[in-house]
Amino acid sequence: MTERFAPPAGGGCRTAPVLKERGQHEVFCGLTGIVWLHRKMPDAFFLVVGSRTCAHLLQSAAGVMIFAEPRFATAILEETDLAGLACAQEELDRVVAELLDRRPDIRRLFLVGSCPSEVIKLDLAKSAERLSAAHAPHVRVLNYSGSGIETTFTQGEDACLAAMVPDLPATDARELLVVGALPDVVEDQMRALLDGLGVGPVRVLPTRRADDAFGVGPNTRVILAQPFLGDTLAALRRRGAQHLAAPLPFGEEGTTLWLRTIAQAFGVSESRFDEVTSAPRARARAAVSRAAEALNGRSVFFFPDSQLEIPLARFLTRECGMRALEIGTPFLHREILTPELDLLPDGPTLSEGQDVERQLDRCRAAAPDLTVCGLGLANPLEAEGMATKWAIELVFTPVHFYEQAGDLAQLFARPLRRRALLAREHRA
Fold first, then answer.
1. What is annotated about its quaternary structure and interactions (predicted)?
2. Which of 87, 122, 151 is at the close of a domain?
């Protein structure tokens, strides 16, 4: 079943002009990454050092956890802390000590800054170093920034994973490191595919448990499972790891090219590759084909939100028959996204950053069949008669690899089917 994917007619978007926008933007802050990271690392705890506003945001964003054992909290900075009238370091030490005394199962404690250190009057990097020494060896304390001033919401994961890289031991072993938080069932599917190809050892960052330690070095081959991990990739490359640039594993095509990149790096024969992937590829194509009936020939407009926009646009245009009008992304990381841009059919406007009012004007003028945007824009656009897809759902829902390819297509098809159904009921 050997198949080479053809480049798009007319060339890809590697050299396409990019509209750089710097203005008001609509996006969640990096703190919301905790909502999926806490599920991936059950022995970790995320202590947000911030204001009551941050506490309310997390409680609202993660309200589904009300019946679960929480693995995050907020150390609220009061007015006296912000004014420098109280010793915030002593207060933080006390909160951490009480937390670890109540929760002896914690092995990794992340101090997450909700604002730059100049605002919260705390150097959390030094705090983490001091607390880690005090509570070693049972607990490792790390820190990163989830500030909405500095990050978009998926960059919270990037900052978290990048903070873990300096602690990884050195190794000369030849290993594959897959970087990016995936639901456990999706990670297990990925491991089964790589095991079938004979690739290994396979490491994943983040690890599910603190004890699942691994090293990194010049023989480590790194491949990303998410496109928004530029800082983590840079940190791994500083440790000597080599990046395997590939399309992201969204859809049948993206998954196949992602796996083929690994297979070529580890000397897997084409016959074995076809033997392992032929059946799941066929299932993925069939599942996508069923969902694509509602998408074929339709247009899509992406607002910048998660940095998933370019890989998703590639999937929708090449596998689902859609036409991309504009693809906005918070940051266009060339090293990560060039394989995607090479496959993306030319034609759409590429924009980086956001000036929300200007982009809204372009969206209304383009009149797309489907608009992918954040929650803050979806309801107003729906009220204007546009079909929308919540971008954040694409981060929370299992969408990677072959078995989820049909589900990914269905996420985009449902808003169009719903709008068609409402239109029929209105006419009736």
1. Protochlorophyllide reductase is composed of three subunits; BchL, BchN and BchB. Forms a heterotetramer of two BchB and two BchN subunits.
2. 151
As a whole number of angstroms, the distance between CA 206 and CA 177 comes to: 10
The pLDDT assigned to 2 comes to 47
Q: How confident is the model at residue 119 (pLDDT cuts 50, 70, 90)?
A: low
Mean pLDDT over all residues of the chain?
88
Q: What is the pLDDT of residue 82?
A: 44
Q: Which of 151, 172, 201 is the last residue of a domain?
A: 151
Mean pLDDT of 86-97: 80
Annotated binding site: 29, 54, 115
**Quick check: is 401 in a domain?**
yes
Give the pairing of strands 349-354 and 72-76. Answer: unpaired
pTM of the full structure = 0.91
329 vs 116 pLDDT, higher one: 329
Letter string b/e over residues 414-423, b meaning 16 or more CB atoms within 10 A of that residue's CB: ebbeebeeee
Could you tell me how far CA 408 lies from the centroid of its own chain?
15
Between CA 119 and CA 82 the distance in angstroms is 7
- CATH number, domain containing residue 360: 3.40.50.1980
Domain residues for 120? 30-151
